[in-house]
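pasting for the record
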Amino acid sequence: MNDNSEIKKLLHKFILNQCTAEETNEVIEYCIQNRLTTEFPTVEEVKTLLGRLPEMDKATADQIFSKILVQAQETEEMETKKFPFKKYMAIAASIVVLLSIGLTYKNSFQTSKTTPVVINSNQITLQLENGEIQVITEGKKSQVTNAKGQVVGNQNGNKIAYDTETSIEELVYNTLKIPNGKRFELQLSDGTIVHLNSGTTLKYPVKFIAGGNRQVFLDGEAFFDVAKDKKHPFVVNADKLNVRVLGTHFNVSSYPEDDLTDVVLVEGSVGLYTADQKYDATKNTVLKPGFKGSFNKNSSKINTKEVNTDMYTSWMNGGLMFRDKSFANICKKLERRYDVIIINKNNKLANEKFNASFGDKPLEKVLTYFEDVYGFSYTTKDNVITIK
């Protein structure tokens, strides 16, 4: 690995999770030989080698990041004598986050002529219609502008409110991304209020255009308080499911690791139909208040049942609720809620199903509960929780 271009190519493969075991060991050995680390390279140590790597667009980076996260969950127990595979995945994912947001992809291995702006993975970001990324600093007051510099809304603390009187008359989208460990509130141009849970992305129009549906795109979890407008139905696209309302209160949870997309109706009525269908009130599933509709992502079937809606909306006040969830799924949700990495080495727990509810508790209290009831132990180092 004396050739600098070969080093860059190998590091690039490492980020994309395309290295063989031999190539990964080569990266580690290179870092050790150059005294960048004494064992496995940390994010900061590897960053010193990445300054001349090609930049990539957000969509490409997000796809890579999602793939790495999924594989990390599936390979917790895969370790070699050289290094823990889980740790490699976590570090690779962190590198992608550091490099991906707000960067523009260049040709495969050409050196960028501009210095990229690196955004931390724990920052709330707003992507404009032209791809530009703005960092949303919590607790401050500021104006929200579009790519042309026009003011389209205002931020006040942990809420952004879009202007209902903006002169924009074309359908342009913004995308708000909430990282792990944080929640945020959004007011759309029609007055609809959206509460966004941690690890959630919402794509929405800067202004809804007369004559069409008010459509938004959700990846994660959000509670919607939809402004009434009988002429313009409000539609939430959650992966393969559409949720159609005229004005009501409901919660949608559609995280990538979940087999089900859950819609819980608090008030009013909603229609559920698959993304490849057209809305038909006589054929689609209609929820009544106090009911949950669960869309199975694999079978595309929708089941409904009566529930306590408070349990499904408690997250807005910091609560946690697990119903018939595997321990692996619970760990993923705890990672998102508390912005930590959880490594489970207890094979007995991996596929067990659990029911539990918590108020706004620190992570230690939640882990202590599981520790007491199910008899495992855990250790904490920095933001990594290891369950034994």
